[in-house]
Amino acid sequence: MTGHINLQLGWPSPSLFPASQLLEGASNVLTSPKKTASSLIYGPDAGYEPLRRSIAKWLTSVYGRGSELSFDRICVNNGASGNLDNVLARFTDPGYTRTIWMVEPCYFLACPIFMDNGFQGMMKGVPEDDEGLDIEYLRRGLEESSKDTTPHNSTRKTGDRYKKLYRHIIYCVPTFSNPSAKTMSLRRRQELIRLARQYDALVVTDDVYDVLRWPAEKDASPDQLGDVPPRLVDVDRTLDGGPKDEWGNAMSNGSFSKIIAPGVRVGWAEGTPAFSLALSTVGATRSGGCPSHMTASFVHELLETGSLQKHLKENVIPTFRARYYAILKAIDEYLVPLGMQISTGKPYHELSDQTNGNSNGHHDPVEQAGGYFIWILLPTALAGKGAALAAKGLKDYDLKFAYGDMMQVQGEPASAERASKGYGHGIRLSWAWHTEQEIVEGVQRLATLVKEAINEAQP
Ligand SMILES: Cc1ncc(COP(=O)(O)O)c(C=O)c1O
């Protein structure tokens, strides 16, 4: 036994922190009087401009597909979580906005952010399907809500400061989702944007895992991967002639937490230029300037010199890739024989080919895998026992993992009901924190736990 094993933790292991690159970045800034002066002062509302520019350049190379993303689409902030809070503060009001739709199983730590903004009891789950979300379920929900004649205009957010409020928020993690590991198909992304435009909804996506990807096949080369799936904000930028109005119907939360280290607390938001400008003027930012300003100036050095991209390519991705194969092999060896199954939806490359209407025989060559998580289903005998199993795992095997019931949309009885019939039977494992050897031992402990529970469940 190697002690405590935490397969719940979605944190990168400290051995992957680019400490020397950060030190060099900090030193580049702090040994230059000019850079120091602009780094240690209150930051501009939209963030350290060199970083906004280097993020725009980097995102252009990742998602641009030939078009340039202008830096005025980007504002810098302190991470995806803080940014979600800012979006709600700036663009919603519980008296005006009707519903928060969350793809379920959901990233459970987003629920309190919605609740803090007055949306307790107004959050509703949208079941995930193999292509990312049940779009017809959402369509029906939006339609029904539009028939509701209860006045929803009692907003206190009036006047010039709040030029735009949205009627609905749709929140999801479309690529390598936390928790389900699914990636939404291109077709669903397009349908979702069209729906959002029709019902005055803002699609908010946490795009924090997208660049951490590798071939699902062990022997394939990373060069064989197709393009990174477009973010919903890219789809809104380009679909049917571009955004419906100056605000758009999608925004992206980006973060350096998963690709540098969570403690740097630097992230960014991307939307239309008008959206990003309004977002960067939330009250606390107007008063204190962009949060994490000094660290943002260090992060810029890493991006501008390419040292972050090199670190990801040569260190982070190969490490996660090796751990991914290790966990897959261990699941296959120890859990599948017990009736557990991996469930990560349909492969993106197949679906995107179909929905692109590729008639020229072109296929993205290999299936992609990535992110931090894998989602597996408990054997039928243990359906609904995730919480009890997790408690026993911690007590008897010093093993931690996340289970489906944690991922309910808080405060929605229908979401709890759906959990009991479906996604509640899942458990989420992460490869981000532990070494390959520890991961395999964690899976072995889980197998012993599950075996024991199956025996106990037998009459
Ligand atoms: C989907 C999702 N959003 C947001 C976060 C937190 O991001 P940040 O550290 O940038 O606030 C996480 C971290 O686990 C996450 O998985």
TrEMBL record:
Record GO terms (molecular function): 2-aminoadipate transaminase activity; pyridoxal phosphate binding
Coiled coil: none
One Pfam match: Aminotran_1_2
Domain Aminotransferase class I/classII large: 38-316
InterPro entries in the record: Aminotransferase_I/II_large, PyrdxlP-dep_Trfase, PyrdxlP-dep_Trfase_major, PyrdxlP-dep_Trfase_small
UniProt keywords, alphabetically: Aminotransferase, Transferase
PANTHER family registered for this protein in UniProt: AMINOTRANSFERASE, LD15494P
The protein's name: Valine--pyruvate aminotransferase
Source lineage: Eukaryota, Fungi, Dikarya, Ascomycota, Pezizomycotina
